Amino acid sequence: MNDLKTSKLPVQDIPSDDLDPYQAAPQELRDVWKSWTKTKAPFPEVKQKLQPAQTTIPEGLLVEEFVTFVLEHLFTLFRNDPRGLESFIDKCDPHEDGQALSMENAVPSGIPDQKSFSKEAFMHYARSTFVQPIQACCNVRSSLSRASTVTRISGLIFLPDLLPPIVQQCLLDMLLHREFSKPENQTNFHLNYYVSYPDNQASFFSTLPHLSSLTPKDPAQNKPLSNRTALDKSLHWITLGGQYDWTNKVYPAEAPPKFAEDIASLVGNIFTDMIPEAAIINVYSAKDKLSMHRDVSEEADRGLVSISLGCSCIFIIGMQDKTTGEILYETLRLNSGDAVYMAGESRYAWHGVPKIVPDTCPEYLQYWPGNLYPQWSEWMSKKRINLNIRQMFESGVVGHDS
Ligand SMILES: O=C(O)CCC(=O)C(=O)O
C-alpha cells in the first residue's frame, strides 16, 4: 500500500529526462478529455475506483500543523492591517461539522494594539486566545480516514477534504494577496506586459478596478487592460520558487527565489517525500481548461502535490500499462480543500482539466477577498485555484536567494 511517509516511493523505470515535454498525449486520453469539455450540467457522477490508503500522518500533528499555519497568517494580518484580522475573525462561520469557530467570543477585550505587540507577544496572545476554536475548525479525522489510492493509476493518492476551510482561506490570502505581489514571482502578465506593483507589496486586490497596472510591451499586439479585466479574465498563472519557463519548458539555470516558508512547511510536513521548491498557481475561470500533459521538467523523481481551492473541477489522469500497453485512466472530481499526490508511476502520468464545474465554490470562499477589498468581493465565486507544487532537483535547491 502506498504511504505518504515512506522516504521515497518507487518511480517508473523511465527517468524524467527521457520524457519529451513536447510529446502529445495518446489519442485515447485526448478523446476522453474532449468528451468532458462538451459535458453539460447536470454532470454525471464521476466513477472512481478508490481503495483506502494507509496514511501514517498522525492526526494530532496534522492539526498542530494547521493551527501553526493559521496563527502565522493571523499575525501577518494583524501586523499589516488589523482590519484584516477583524474581518478574518468576522467571516469565520460555523464549521460544516457544526463546530462553531467562535473566535469573536474568544476575544475578551477586542483586538490588541498593533504597535505594542511583537511577533512573540502576538503568538503568545493568539495561542491562548484562538487555538481552541482554530483546532475545532481543523477536524481532520474524516479526511484522513478517506485518503485513497486510485486503483488503475499506480502511486496516485487522493486526499479528499485534506485542508479545512480556515486553512484554505489562509492559503488563498497568502497566494493571492502576498505571493502574487512579489515581483520575483512571474505571472502570465509578464509575457506581454510591464507590471506596475502596488506600493509596499500590497495586494493587487487593493487596486482600483478601473485603473491599470499593466502596460503592453508591444501596443500593436496587446491592448491596455484595466485591473478589472486583468484580474477577472486574464490572470492564468503565477509561479513561486523555481520560475518555470513555459516557452522552453525548463527551469532557469540561476538560483530560484526562495519558496515561501509557511507554505513549504505546511506542504513539506504533510508530504514528507518531497521538498517544495517550485509551484504553479493555476487560476481558472468558469470556461477555462488545461489540456492533457505530463510534468517532466523536474530533475527529481519526487511526488507532486496538487491542492484545489474554490470551484470543483473534473481531473483526468492516465498512463500506459507497462506490460499490456493498455491506456489506463481515471476521472476524479476535485473539490475545494482536496489534495492529490502524484507519486510513484503516477508522477509522470498524463493529466488535464477539461471542465470547471460551475457554481461550486463553497460558501466560505465565495466572498473572498471579502470586506477588506469590497470592490473585489466575490472575485472567488467563479474561480478555481490549483496550487501545484514540485521538487526541482534530487539534491534540493542550493544557494537560492533569501
Ligand atoms: O489544475 C489542476 O488540477 C492541474 C494542474 C496541472 O496539471 C499543472 O499545473 O501541471
Automatic annotation (TrEMBL):
Protein name: mRNA N(6)-methyladenine demethylase
Gene source species: Glarea lozoyensis (strain ATCC 20868 / MF5171)
Region listing for Disordered, in residue ranges: 1-22
Residues involved in Fe cation binding: 293, 295, 351
Record family assignment: Belongs to the alkB family.
Lineage, highest ranks first: Eukaryota, Fungi, Dikarya, Ascomycota, Pezizomycotina
Keywords: Dioxygenase, Iron, Metal-binding, Oxidoreductase, Virulence
EC number: 1.14.11.53
One Pfam family, short name: 2OG-FeII_Oxy_2
Residue spans crossing the bilayer: none
CC cofactor: Fe(2+)
Record note on cofactor: Binds 1 Fe(2+) ion per subunit.
InterPro entries with a match to the protein in the record: Alkb (IPR004574), AlkB-like (IPR027450), AlkB-like_sf (IPR037151), Oxoglu/Fe-dep_dioxygenase_dom (IPR005123)
Signal peptide bounds: none
GO molecular function, one term: metal ion binding
Fe2OG dioxygenase domain mapped to chain residues: 275-393
Catalyzed reactions per annotation: an N(6)-methyladenosine in mRNA + 2-oxoglutarate + O2 = an adenosine in mRNA + formaldehyde + succinate + CO2
Gene Ontology CC: one annotated term: nucleus
